[in-house]
Amino acid sequence: MPYIVALSGGIASGKSTVANLFAKLGAQVVDADIIAKKVVEKGSLALKHIVEYFGQDILLADGNLNRAKLREVIFNQQQHRIWLNQYLHPIIQRETTLQISKLDSPYVLWVVPLLIENNLQKQADRVLIIDTPVDIQIERLKNRDNISEDLAKNMLLSQATNADRISYADDVIVNNGDTSELSSQVKLLHNMYLKLSQNYS
């Protein structure tokens, strides 16, 4: 297994942007969000079980998962969010482990939104947290997903706070929207992770 750097942060903190910057420098990326979308594709067993739990209303007319509807349900009713997380988490973890085991690279950047919430930090050799001001997260969420401020706040409240995440961090990237500053932070960390992976066995 390669040296594993877990990248996490709150929703709309810029995880994909940061992961893409690492990828441009040559880092191998395994993204739990991408895996989560793959395992609930139309025709999958996971989607079948989700429909059995939530009902047919959770589907679009073409049979795909209605993500907007699901998001509205789970972030307004905690018990449904807990059920979905407990059901999907092991499936996503199995696929994640499989993908990481197949990589032949000095280190892998493992993007995992619910790292702290699912107590996964010990499965990584190093933890990198993105610190983004809450007001920026809320604005990004409202604009990205075309949702109300109340729903955006509920989505943030369902996750660990930035302070909680940072308490587990080995490294922190501050993302205030300055792209050049973000790139320089990523470059420094990428070089450090390459050095750390050389001593890893």
Q: Describe it for me?
A:
The chain is α/β, with parallel strands linked by helices. The chain has one domain: P-loop containing nucleotide triphosphate hydrolases (Rossmann fold, 3-Layer(aba) Sandwich), CATH 3.40.50. 53% of the residues lie in helices and 13% in strands. The protein is built from nine helices and five strands; from the N terminus they run E-H-E-H-H-H-H-E-E-H-H-H-E-H. The chain has helices at residues 15-24, 32-39, 45-54, 67-74, 78-101, 134-145, 149-157, 162-166, 179-198; strands at residues 3-9, 28-31, 107-111, 126-131, 171-174. Helix 6 (134-145) packs across helix 7 (149-157). It is globular, with a radius of gyration of 17 Å. The model has no long low-confidence stretch (mean pLDDT 93).
Q: Features of this protein?
A:
alpha/beta, five-stranded parallel sheet, Rossmann fold, 9 helices, 53% helix, 201 residues
